[in-house]
Design goal:
elongated
Length: 217
């Protein structure tokens, strides 16, 4: 979300040079919101346990405008998606997440208010997972909430793999009970040139996870 802060620095510099009208300030803030919509960053990590390959993690931070319940104000989601395999049982995906409302004022200050999303689902090419008993909400690291997706059999693993191969990792985030979902596709976040390589490294790692551990059952 680098563009957001650049725009606000511009606002601060311009304000110090001359008095801006309320309309000019509103236009600059609106431009900052538009630029930050869909901005984000990814970081891939290969997970090991006892020195042995154990899974794949994709850390993320992504901003969007919430037109569902916040009148187009910015919200930022930060966390990670991790893929693991429990031998003899099934693949599972762990989503770690926290939300943050971002608000502006005319002095180029941003207020930040964290919140815990009510629910998270994963939408694949074949189905949406997280609507029933295939997801469990957990407490994890301080400030974050986790959702563990664990579906017996291979349907989830295959649907998830197909979506990754098509360039999609979509989270459906329910902000509050009864509210409409916000869609955050990690593969489509845009900011730096490093974003795409990190996503495809995660895809490659997940493919390796399928090959290495799936053959053991």
């Amino acid at each position: 979300m680098r563009t957001l802060f650049v725009a606000l620095l511009l606002l601060a510099a311009t304000s110090s040079a001359r008095a801006l009208s309320d309309r000019e300030i509103a236009d600059i803030i609106e431009a900052a919101k538009q630029s930050a919509d869909g901005q984000g960053a990814l970081k891939f990590t290969r997970v090991t346990r006892g020195g042995q390959f154990d899974g794949c993690e994709l850390q993320f931070s992504g901003g969007m405008r919430d037109w569902r319940s916040q009148n187009g104000e910015l919200v930022r989601f930060t966390g990670s998606v991790s893929s693991f395999y429990e031998r003899g049982k099934h693949f599972f995906v762990l989503v770690k997440l926290v939300g943050e409302d971002l608000r502006f004022n005319s002095k180029a200050h941003i207020s930040q208010a964290r919140f815990v999303p009510h629910h998270v689902s994963i939408r694949t090419q074949g189905a949406t997972y997280g609507q029933g008993g295939d997801v469990q909400k957990l407490q994890c690291e301080a400030g974050y909430t986790c959702w563990m997706f664990a579906t017996p059999g291979w349907n989830f693993a295959k649907d998830y793999a197909n979506s990754l191969a098509e360039g999609s990792l979509e989270l459906l985030i329910t902000r509050a009970r009864g509210s409409m979902d916000l869609s955050l596709d990690l593969a489509k976040l845009k900011e730096s040139q490093d974003t795409a390589p990190h996503f495809w490294e995660f895809v490659s790692c997940y493919s390796e996870l399928l090959r290495k551990f799936g053959a053991q059952d």
